[in-house]
């Protein structure tokens, strides 16, 4: 998928090393993975699950590429049988430029093409940028519990 400034390509095992590095950046990890280190084994599991989701559902994790450099990840992941969640992370040097919204809008378009009708957005309470992104995407706040805020986005 392409946007005005980005290329989004399915993430795969060939991206393992760069994604382990990305997800372990302290600023990126702060609101992901409960701020715990992401092992290569965990990253491999996430990528294999994503590849299976692409094969089964037509969506998964896309690597976000700008000027031929991987700068993050954005994707859709099933949460149980009922819900699908949108996930995103960008390298800190690319924060504040609207790129997360641009990537998320492209991924949500893929969700619509896969006939999804609703997507969950879950953010940590302190992640103000993600709260703003959920609002910008048109998500409706459901509530907060256990240090997280939940939003629903109708597609």
TrEMBL record:
SUPFAM superfamilies: Acyl-CoA N-acyltransferases (Nat). Residues 6-155 form the N-acetyltransferase domain. The keyword Transferase applies. Keywords: Transferase. PROSITE patterns: GNAT. One of its GO terms (molecular function) is acyltransferase activity, transferring groups other than amino-acyl groups. It comes from the Bacteria. Gene3D superfamilies: 3.40.630.30. InterPro entries: Acyl_CoA_acyltransferase, GNAT_dom, N-acetyltransferase. This is Protein N-acetyltransferase, RimJ/RimL family.
